[in-house]
Amino acid sequence: MKERLKIIAIFVFLGMCFLAGIKGRVLADDALNNQIENIKKQIADLEGAIAPLKKESTGLQAKIASAKKQISGIEFQVSELGKKLIDKEADLEVQKILMSQRVRRYYIDSKRFSPLVMFFSSQGTENILQQYTWFQSIISQDKNVISSYSTEIENLNKNKNELEVQKVKLAALKKSMEDRFGFLSGEISKAETYKAKLSQDLINLEAQRIAGLNLPKSVGSGGISCVDDRTRDPGFGSGFAFFTFGIPHHVGLNQYGAYGRAKAGQDYKTILNAYYNNVSIERKPNISIQVQGFGSMPLETYLLGIYEVPESWPIEALKSQVVAARSYALAYTNNGSNEICTTQSCQVYKGGNKGGNWERAVRETEGEVLIHDGQIITAWYASTAGGYTFTSSDIGWRSTGWTKRVRDTNGEIDSFDDLFAKAFDRESPCFYSAQGYRTEYNKTAWLKPTEVADIVNVVLLYQKDSSVQNHLCYKDNSSGCSDTWDAERVKLELRNRGETPFNSISSASVTDWNKQEGKTNTLSFSGDAGQVSVSGSTFKSLFNIRAPANISIVGPLYNVEKR
Questions:
Q1: CA-to-CA distance for 127 and 118, rounded, in angstroms?
Q2: Which range marks the domain in which residue 454 is found?
Q3: Does the structure show a pLDDT above 70 at 248?
Q4: Are residues 239 and 289 in the same domain?
Q5: Which has the closest alpha carbon to 379: 518, 477, 482, 268?
Q6: Residue 222 lies in a domain
Q7: Has residue 441 got a pLDDT over 90?
Q8: 8 A C-beta contact, residue 384 and residue 248
Q9: The dihedral of CA 128, 134, 136, 142: what is its sign?
Q10: Same structural domain for residues 262 and 368?
C-alpha cells in the first residue's frame, strides 16, 4: 500500500513538471499528439493506482458500519444488563430484609423451643417441633434465594464488564479504521483532483489539436469554409463520415443563431439574453483603446471597423453583435489598459468604417455593454453552435457566471430532423459538417468501411484494456505513441482478450443523444462481427487519435452518415 501511495505521489509530481513544461507553448502536430497520449497514459496509470485504494476504502466503510452496529448492539445489551442488575439488586435487598426478619423471629422462637420449654409446653412436643422445622426450612430457602441472587448478580456484573471491555476494543478498532479511511479518502481525493486536472489539460490539448483544423471562430474570420461532404464522392464507393453539429467553441453569442432569431422577430436585447446568463445592458463612456497595428482610438471608432458578421444581416442581429464586440473589447483590454489583436484570436478588425447597417447598429447602441455582477463580461461568440451552446467550463475554459447551456431551437425537438428544421443557426454552412479531409479522396472526410472497423476495434480494445491506449494512435502519427499498433495488431490483441474484431462495418448510427444539452450518448455499429454499442464520448476521443489525416469530430453532438 505504501508503494502504491508513493506511485501516486510520483505521478502527481511528474505530471506537474510535465504540465509546467508545456504551458504557454504552441505544439506541433506530432508533439501535440505525444503530449495528449502522455496525459492519457498518466490518467490510466493513476486510475490503476487509485482503484485498489478505492476498493480498500469501500471495504473499510463496510467494516466501520459493522463495528458501529456491533457497538450499538453491545451498548443495548449493557443497558439491558444494567436494568436487570438494578432489579436483581433490589430483589436481593428485599430478600435480605425478609430473611433478617425471619431469622430474628426464629431466634426469638428458638428460645421457646428449648428442651425444658418443649417438655412443659401445653402445645405438645410434636407441634413445637413442626414449627421449629418449618422455620428452619423457610430460613434455608431464604438463604438459597439470596445465594442464587448473589450468583446471578455476580454473573450479570461479569457479563457487563466483559461487554464493556469488548465495547472499548471495538471502539478502538473503529477509530483505527476511521483514521485509515480518512487517510485513504484524503489520498484518493488528492489523486482524483489531480486526475481532474489532467483530464482538463487533456481537453485543452485536444482542443488545441482541433484548432489545427483552422476552423473559423466567427463569420467574419475569412469566409466559412465548411463543406457538406454528403454531396461529394470520395472515389472509393461506400463509406461513412462523421458530421459535427456546429464548430468550436459553442460559447456565448451564436452569430448564425442571432441571425435566425432576428429573422424570427426577436430584438437584440432578447437575443443577447438568450445567449448570456444573468446580464444587464448598461452604458459606458467612449474611452480609447490600443488596437494592434492601428494605435490608439476611441472605442466607438474601433467598432466601426469590426468585420465579424455581414453588414447585410438583419439590424437586430447586427446590434447584438455590436454590444457583444464592445463588451469583449473592454473586458479584453481591461478598460483600455491592454492592446487588442485584430484576428479571430480576439475579434476581426480591418479598420475604417464598414458603413451601412453596421454603422447604424454601432450608433444606435452607443456605449452599451453587457454587465454581470457589476463587471463587463468577456462576451465570447462564435459563428455556429449547431443548435446548442455550452458554458465556458464545459469546453475547458475558466468557469463563468454569464455563459450558459442553451438549446438554440425554435420549439421542442425529438430528432435530428427536428434540429435541422428548428435550430436558429440552421442556415450556417457549418451547422452540420464533417471536419478534416484527405486530398487523395477528393478532399473529403469519408472513411472506408474497413477504416471505421479499425476505429471501432480500437474502442473495443480500449474498453477491454485501457492500459493499451498509447498503442492506438493513427499510424501516420506514430510519434504520439510508444509503439503504434496497426489494424491487424489491434485485431490480434482483441482476440487475445476473448473478443471478436470487425473486419468491416456495414451500418452505423447514433442510437441515443441528449436532446436537451446536445451530446451524442451512444452509437451502434454492425458488421461481420455482429453488433456493438459504444459510448459517444469514448468513441469521439479515440476517433480523434485514430482517424486518418486530420479528420476529426469537433463537438459533443455529432452524427454518422453512410453513402
A1: 10
A2: 229-243+430-562
A3: yes
A4: no
A5: 268
A6: no
A7: yes
A8: no
A9: negative
A10: yes
Assigned C-alpha cell, 83: 436494568
Give the closest residue to 227 by CA, choosing from 448, 442, 430: 430
Same domain, 393 and 435: no
Using only the alpha carbons of the chain, give its radius of gyration: 41
Assigned domain for 56 exists = yes
Mind giving me the DSSP string for 349-364? B--S---HHHHHHHHH
The grid coordinates listed for 125 are 412436643
Is there a contact between 545 and 465 (Cβ–Cβ < 8 Å)?
no
Give the phi and the psi of residue 351 in degrees, each rounded to 5: 85, 170
Q: What pLDDT, in 10s, does the model give residues 167-186?
A: 787 788 778 877 877 887 78
Rounded-to-integer distance, Cα 33 and Cα 39, Å? 10
Point out which residues pair with 438 in neighbouring strands: 444
- C-alpha span between 71 and 66 (Å, rounded): 9
Q: Is residue 391 part of a domain?
A: yes
pTM higher than the cut 0.70:
no
* Nearest of 460, 488, 483 to residue 472 by alpha carbon: 483
Q: What are the grid coordinates assigned to 281, written together?
A: 445592458
Is residue 223 included in any domain, yes or no?
no
**Joined grid coordinates for residue 455:** 476505429
pLDDT tens digits for 179-232? Answer: 877 887 787 777 777 766 665 555 455 555 555 566 667 776 655 568 889 999
Residue 247 pLDDT exceeds 70: yes
The Cα 277–Cα 410 span in angstroms is 19
Per the rule left: phi > 0, alpha: psi between -120 and 50, beta: everything else, 293 is: left
Q: pLDDT per residue over 311-320, tens digit each? A: 999 999 999 9
Residues 142 and 121 in one domain: yes
Residue located via cell numbers 476552423: 215
Report the C-alpha gap between 170 and 163 in whole angstroms.
10
Strand partners, 381: 253
272-to-275, 280, 321, 325 alpha-carbon distances in Å:
5, 10, 9, 12
Question: Do residues 434 and 242 make contact, with C-beta atoms less than 8 angstroms apart?
Answer: yes
- The β-bridge relationship of strands 432-434 and 406-407 is unpaired
Amino acid letter, residue 89: E
Task: Write out 31-65 in H/E/C secondary structure.
Answer: HHHHHHHHHHHHHHHHHHHHHHHHHHHHHHHHHHH
Residues 434 and 532 in one domain: yes
- Of 367, 384, 419, the one marking the end of a domain is 419
Q: Under the phi-then-psi rule, with left for phi > 0, alpha for psi from -120 to 50, and beta for the rest, what region is 374?
A: left
Distance (Å, whole) CA 207 – CA 211: 6
On whether the CB atoms of residues 239 and 563 are closer than 8 A, the answer is yes
Distances in Å between the Cα of 300 and the Cα atoms of 114, 165, 170, 326 are 133, 82, 75, 8
Q: Of 154, 157, 179, 177, nearest to 70 (Cα)? A: 177
Q: How many structural domains does the chain have?
A: 3
